[in-house]
Design goal:
The chain has 158 residues and is an all-alpha fold. The chain is 81% helix and 0% strand. Helix 1 runs antiparallel to helix 3 and helix 1 runs parallel beside helix 4. The radius of gyration is 19 Å and the shape is elongated.
Length: 158
């Protein structure tokens, strides 16, 4: 059994969860900082700013989903790991990169956009929906990256 191929695939799964998770953590933290200031002045705005804070958390979930799908596909989840060549392992590692990289950067970008939306909500709460839409636009690219990673994972011959 070529353990290098399997190791590369496991590294790929880890990278997808790790980088997308870092992006989400950074993004959620940025919004949390802005939201804490608003809620300290007006606690009634908590639910409005909470929605904005949740948005950048999705990239981490997409990275986790990618990792789980990859680990399942290669048999690590379930206890029957498949034999992978080094080339196959590199393909799985490559399949993790779209959501890993886009998740990292879009989580942070979405956090910045949502933090700006917290400012909108603080001044004009009736425009909260517009703030959510602006932050959600960043999500499009994370979803596209997730789709590419999933398509690649399930189209690698093993």
């Amino acid at each position: 059994m070529n353990s290098m191929g399997l190791a590369l695939a496991i590294i790929g799964a880890s990278v997808s969860a790790l980088l997308a998770g870092i992006g989400s953590a950074k993004g959620v933290g940025l919004v949390g900082e802005a939201a804490a200031g608003v809620v300290s002045v007006d606690p009634d705005k908590f639910s409005k700013v909470l929605v904005l804070q949740l948005l950048p958390g999705t990239q981490g979930l997409y990275g986790l989903l990618t990792a789980i799908l990859m680990l399942s596909r290669i048999g690590v989840i379930g206890g029957n790991a498949v034999e992978l060549s080094t080339a196959q392992g590199l393909m799985f590692l490559g399949a993790s990169l779209p959501i890993a990289i886009v998740g990292l950067f879009s989580g942070i970008a979405q956090g910045r956009s949502a933090a700006a939306g917290v400012g909108i909500t603080a001044r004009k709460p009736e425009h909260n929906g517009k703030a959510i839409i602006m932050a959600a636009m960043v999500e499009t690219y994370a979803i596209l990256a997730l789709l590419v990673s999933i398509l690649l994972i399930y189209n690698i011959a093993i």
